[in-house]
Amino acid sequence: MQQKKMAAPCRKMASRTLWKVLSHFSRTGVKSEGCRHFSITPICEAALQTKPGTEVASSPWTLMAAVCLQRLPVISADCSPLEQRFKDMLLQLELEKSVLSDHELRLLEDAERMSRKQSGDYDLDEDDSSDNQDIILAQDLEDAWEQKFQNFQTAPRVVADVDKDLTSVERCLPDSLVLLAEQQVGGEKLWLLPQAPWQKGETLRQTAEKALSTVSADGFKATFLSNAPCGVYKYKLPRAARTESSVGAKVFFFKAILADRTAARDPNPALLWAKKSELQQYLKPAYMMKVDRFILNL
Fold first, then answer.
1. What pTM was computed for the model?
2. I need a labelling partner for 152 at 20 to 30 A (CA). Which of 94, 205, 252, 291 fits?
């Protein structure tokens, strides 16, 4: 009996039309006079409106772009003892599992033919050629290769004079090198990655390309790896040099690979090529901490 009493209101509500239900809630809801309405439109409009004659304040931070230009290794590095043992093992496995080359098969056939000739068990009709120069030609070819190999002189892997010249791009061929430029910052000269200030109307990538083209008269042919920076470094000017409109600079780094390692006609003492292990001798610790994150010692 109790279930029927509870189900009756439900059936009555279900039988009502939609507009009756909505009107029921509108009559029983809170009156509009008791609610306070909020609107964000006037606030947004007020925030976007600026008074006539006022200017948007410029940032006190100077934007700059720098280039991490790397010269990749030209020759392979020397193997460590463990790497050399592993290399010898691979060569031995390759030799054991390899098959004879065409030249080696030809030498075996010629040796067999020569032994049959010496034993008298050889028919001239088996040989298409009228003379027996094949085995001599094969041996002569192998001797010529050996003579050519003996006359071949490899280029030196280490050139002491060039390796000590930090301005030469030909130094330390097995290592990866990074270009550093001596630039004026405030009242002192510092070794930094080539950088230039951003100008209105250009992208940071264009600023980085400009920085690379202005550090050397000969220019560098480089391949940039991305249009986006790979790191950022922020520094403040000395207190004596700070102003309300200039507090410091934000430097955005771009990575590039040297495409042409043609040596410059005249060495530039304001430029040097350093290995990653040598960078800490020229860069300040805070700057080095930022740069070390994206320089790969390939």
1. 0.63
2. 94
